[in-house]
Amino acid sequence: MASVFGTAIKRREDPRLITGNGRYTDDVQLPGMLYAAILRSPHAHARIRGINVEKAKRHPGVVAVFTGRDVAGKVAPIPTAWLPPDSNIKTPAHPALAVDSVRYVGDGVAMVVAESRYVARDALELIEVDYEVLPAVVDPEKAMEKGAPAVHEEVPDNVAFHWQAGSDPASAFQDAEVVVRHRFRQQRLIPNAMEPRSAVAQYNAGSGEMTVWVTSQNPHIHRFLLSNILGIPEHKLRIVAVDVGGGFGSKIPCYADEALVALAAKELGRPVKWTEDRRENFLATSHGRDEVIYAELAGKRDGTMLGLRIRMVANMGAYLSTAAPGVPTILFGLITVGPYRIPRAHTEVYGVFTNTTPTDAYRGAGRPEATYVIERMTDLFAREIGMDVVEVRKKNLIPAEEFPYTTALGLQYDSGNYHGALQKALEMVHYEEFRKEQERLRTQGRYIGLGWSTYVEICGLGPSQIAGAVGFQGGLWESAAVRVHPGGKVTVFTGASPHGQGEETTFAQIVADRFGIPVEDVEVVHGDTDRIPMGWGTYGSRATPVGGSALAVAADRILEKARKIAAHMLEVSEEDVEFADGKFQVKGVPTRQVTFQNVVLQAHLAWNLPAGVEPGLEAQAFYDPVNFCYPFGAHACVVEVDVETGQIKVLRYVAVDDCGPVINPMIVEGQVHGGIVQGMGQALWEGAVYDEQGQLVTGSFMDYAMPKARFFPSFETAHTVTPAPHNPLGVKGIGETGTIAATPAVVNAVVDALAPFGVADLEMPLTPEKIWKITHGRDA
């Protein structure tokens, strides 16, 4: 039987999803179900002088109305689950519904529960709130200034935390022949998963058990946090999140809305559903990015990089969301040197409160920002010394023979062949030919550009000891249970929580490959805390390297037991039995064999088992990696800029990625393609904008631009394979690589195209208006 590991088979979950047979949270229908709607603040900062809910309560069909004072003491403040050490972090209480003050447009003020969602929404308009509007601040740098409006009175200068990593690179700057300095702005982005957030809660008063169906990337983390928020023991709280229509990080956090729905179900004795609309998604679901970054790069005129100094001011919004403090610190601050051999580096991060929607992880979470800065600085450095951008990269990339390599910021990159990936991309692009064509076209008034991004990322989040050391309030191991049924079919239970990544397929491939059975014989169960073992969920490209590794370990334990049974059946010693292609056979005598299915049946019949071997074939594993994973690659983007209109057309996009051995090439390609699109979205179109009063100007798809398929060429992808040395599969993450690499590749390409106009940098998104102003001598 041919190996299914490495085979491009279609995603097994797709027929269910694309034919409308999936079951998303809003699809849950329960007898007697009520519907909740949440009144949200229209002001970015205001004092609540009073709330009158009497008209809403009397409205036909309304069952209950809850205010902040009603739920205080019943619903604990929403916690933050990442507390970076030595950062003087401040975590002001985040009430489920505002009590005295609102701190951003979209802050929850009251909840109506009614017989239908339409009645609930109508009743919101009957609630009268007396607001005393207060000054607001939306810019994180202005929020740090003396005299700025205080988002939380107990937080001086609005600074939530101050974190540093590395050591002062002053000596590198003293020795430098060239120092390049620049200020970058990572604009705020709004995750727009196809499925908006939703929650359904049902409470059983007789047993004290609560079930919550919720749009979650990490059901057990949701259970742990909601248990503390609601005061319900974990063994009495079930979280279900099987079909989730995308998350991109925005469904990691535990939100107040989910706790409120659960409280209403308990108080009213009936199931309650809440589903946000797209406007609510824009206002109340966590946002991403929104940072100002100051970078300094020291080097020599021969292209050698000597030192890096980074200072970031990160906009955290009005409250610290679940994983928010870890994004600009650990996930950004430790990877700012990228794939380069920079001997001295220092990162400093200020997390700042503002009167805006809280920020949290968004696809890549810190790694895209870090890659953007170092890749833009590399191009600026090359420009300053008059050296080709590719040659600068080649000179500074960490050589393959130096792995494992410990960076100036303390990470140990376990493996890599960075020059190999870059060389492959150069060959695909036909670099020398491109430069000649670029010069030829410029003489005709056409401006094409080529941008590079050579990246490395930190992902595969674990290990747990490091997670604890960097302030994550949980473990980062992963679990798996593998159950082989008497007929040879297999059920896999995973603590990872797929929501678009395709693990129902790839996890089945891992087990099918281990056992030598058809992939159709393997069922993957996830997303239900009553069915699966404790796990830490899916984010940070960890599901396959950590969850998949747990699965491989559990499968190998089953094979170890099965080998004992097979040896007993073949009447030989265990050492004389080998396993291949789904058969146990005697070494040197391949005709003496028993199939995997034969052994499975005997394990369950238990008629003739070896001494000391228990019946059944089932194993569980908890896998805690010893290091992160470090996928890497080289991306190149070719654009043409129409200087008369400012329009940018992407002509080619080449992506060479290394995620270790590829389980399913089709799924990997899909992940890379999707990531590239999101990265390009930030570079060219997307950007959330607040006015000075804290109103979200880009609060719908009318004003917030999203990329469409017709905007893109056919992506050209390739891979190198450098296995991770510390996990049993050798795999690394792939889900975020496209987003991490694409943004700087696109911006570098546009800057390259506009070099004749003296352009050194552009602030994202690169809208036609900005480009037109530059090419026509106006201020951008």
What can you see in these coordinates?
By secondary structure, the chain is an alpha+beta fold. The chain has 3 domains: 14-134 and 194-246 and 251-284, Aldehyde Oxidoreductase, domain 3; 288-461 and 627-775, Aldehyde oxidase/xanthine dehydrogenase, molybdopterin binding domain (Aldehyde Oxidoreductase, domain 4, 2-Layer Sandwich), CATH 3.30.365.10; 477-623, Aldehyde Oxidoreductase, domain 4. It is built from 21 helices and 28 strands. The strands form 7 sheets. It has a 7-stranded mixed sheet with strand order 3-5-1-12-9-10-11, with helices on both faces. A 5-stranded mixed sheet has the order 7-15-14-13-8. Strands 18-26-27-28 form a 4-stranded mixed sheet, with helices on both faces. A hairpin with a 5-residue loop joins strand 19 (478-484) and strand 20 (490-494). Helix 19 crosses helix 20 (737-753). The chain is globular and about 85 Å long. The model has no long low-confidence stretch (mean pLDDT 97).
Record the SSE blueprint.
Elements: H1 14-18, E1 34-40, E2 46-52, H2 54-58, E3 62-67, H3 68-71, E4 101-102, E5 108-114, H4 117-124, E6 128-133, H5 140-143, E7 159-166, H6 170-175, E8 178-189, E9 198-204, E10 209-214, H7 219-230, E11 237-240, H8 256-268, E12 272-275, H9 278-284, E13 288-299, E14 305-317, H10 327-333, E15 344-353, H11 367-385, H12 389-396, E16 405-406, E17 412-413, H13 418-429, H14 431-442, E18 447-456, H15 464-469, E19 478-484, E20 490-494, H16 503-515, E21 522-525, H17 543-570, E22 577-580, E23 583-586, E24 589-595, H18 596-605, E25 618-623, E26 632-641, E27 648-658, H19 665-684, E28 716-719, H20 737-753, H21 768-775
Parallel strand pairs: 1-12, 10-11, 14-15, 20-21, 27-28
Antiparallel strand pairs: 1-5, 2-4, 2-6, 3-5, 7-15, 8-13, 9-10, 9-12, 13-14, 16-17, 18-26, 19-20, 19-25, 22-23, 23-24, 26-27
Helix pairs in contact: 10-11, 11-20, 16-17, 17-18, 19-20
